[in-house]
Specification:
Elements lengths: L2 H27 L5 E7 L7 H8 L2 H4 L3 E7 L2 H10 L4 E5 L2 H7 L4 E6 L6 E6 L16 E4 L5 H12 L8 E4 L4 H8 L5 E5 L2 H7 L3 E7 L2 H8 L6 E6 H6 L1 H20 L2 H7 L9 H11 L13 H10 L19 H9 L4
Parallel strand pairs: 1-2, 1-3, 6-7, 6-8
Antiparallel strand pairs: 3-10, 4-10, 5-8, 5-9
Length: 347
């Protein structure tokens, strides 16, 4: 066999070996479940912005996933979708993992989207012109995104700080977009706890007065005594154990989105999100993003002590939860984030 013939033969053999090995290597990284349904309560909120960015920029597809996102009115509804089996994963509030463990339906959060509640409590300038402090809310109608949602948890915590209990107000679900704005402007509710761009829009138009602003990390940490995790991706423990590669792929996509958001300008974000997110006012959306940017996680990592803080906040709403019966080490994990950061290190 001549040198050229031998070299050609070796090259062909190597190419064949590569073709044979490639599928095996790809299979090792292929998610167990490529079609994944994620339930979310208020997708257009900055609270869930990493989810939208991962979707719009194709990060889920890059990880071999075909993700379907189903939007509900409030986090409690999205949780019900997973419990009922119509969705696989929730993009929702961290504290739900605690309440579900208490119900013997263990869930685990595996990547963080927000490190502050990103919520604010405001009162109507129309029906509460003489508002002075929290106690003035007694007997009033307080709008939340949905009954049982994270907004109600935070609202109850704020009420408790002001000397009121959950039964001292009437909670009304108003959603997290135009419905919430209309409820305040029409006088259907006296106060509202919500997120941006709703809060920024109402403040800009002088419809409301600020009572507690937990969109700022420093104020939230002062209020709660540390980091209160906000939006996460979480799922039943059984799903995570059965589909670790799928969960890793989801985590990779959100970690990339977290990092992209940390560096993006408001204008870049506005170009990526659907037009409907702007609610007809681009400038308010830009201002709202700038005001919430620091509250979004830069890398998806859960900080130490965050589970205890979340437990304390949750127990102001549900004192039937016994801390002795909750294993906080099992409601979240950083192992998928740590792997994602090896693939997509923070730059």
């Amino acid at each position: 066999m001549s040198f050229l013939t031998r070299r050609t033969f070796i090259a062909a053999a190597c190419a064949a070996a590569a073709l044979t090995a490639a599928p095996m290597s790809f299979a090792a990284e292929t998610p167990e479940k490529t079609d994944v349904t994620i339930a979310v309560g208020g997708k257009s909120l900055y609270y869930y912005l990493p989810l939208t960015i991962a979707e719009q920029l194709g990060y889920f597809k890059d990880e071999g996933l075909n993700v379907k996102i189903v939007d509900f009115q409030g986090g409690s509804k999205s949780l019900q979708a997973v419990v009922g089996g119509s969705a696989d994963v929730v993009s929702g509030a961290f504290e739900h993992t605690i309440s579900m463990q208490a119900k013997k339906q263990p869930m685990i959060a595996f990547v963080l989207q927000g490190r502050a509640p990103q919520q604010a409590l405001v009162v109507s300038n129309k029906t509460m012109k003489d508002f002075k402090d929290i106690k003035d809310l007694k007997g009033k109608k307080l709008g939340v995104t949905a009954p049982g949602s994270s907004s109600q948890v935070v609202a109850n915590y704020i009420l408790g700080k002001g000397g009121l209990g959950p039964k001292d107000v009437a909670f009304i679900g108003v959603g997290s977009s135009s419905g919430a704005v209309s409820a305040i402007r029409s006088g259907q509710i006296d106060a509202l706890i919500n997120l941006d761009p709703v809060i920024t829009m109402l403040l800009k138009n002088n419809d409301v007065k600020m009572v507690a602003d937990l969109r700022k990390v420093s104020e939230a940490e002062k209020f709660f005594g540390g980091t209160l995790p906000a939006g996460t991706l979480y799922a039943p423990v059984s799903f995570v154990e059965k589909n670790p590669k799928t969960v890793q792929a989801l985590t990779n996509a959100i970690v990339r989105a977290d990092q992209w958001i940390a560096k993006a300008t408001p204008e870049e974000v506005a170009k990526v999100v659907p037009e409907s997110y702007l609610m007809g006012n681009r400038e308010i959306y830009l201002a709202g993003f700038e005001g919430n940017r620091e509250a979004l996680s830069p890398d998806g990592h859960f900080p130490d002590g965050c589970a205890e803080i979340s437990m304390n906040a949750l127990r102001t709403v549900n004192d039937k939860i016994d801390p002795k019966q909750i294993d906080l080490s099992k409601i979240y994990t950083n192992k998928f984030v740590e792997e994602a950061l090896k693939k997509y290190p923070v730059k």
